[in-house]
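Example 3.2
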Amino acid sequence: MNVWATIILWDDADPNSDRIVRETAQERLTIAFVPTVDAAAAVASQLVEDGAELVELCGGFGLDAGAVVSKAVQGRAAVGAVAFGIESITQAAAYKAKFEASA
């Protein structure tokens, strides 16, 4: 079975309860929402203990968070981070503004 996780930065998230799990006979994906990088590290470590082989961080974290989460999982799983290339700065800024306006 493939087991992986995506962690999303969300200001008011409760890392213990704000989760979505999709499971089939071949795969299990957990999407966890966390309020901080430190919470992401703790959640990633716990998800790896539960079998996650890959942890992906959403682009809202920034690249430094990848190092913090990688340290927390201690090489027990791969850690990936979504990043925005220079060509997408305008679109990313527009998305951020729209998101903040809806909050």
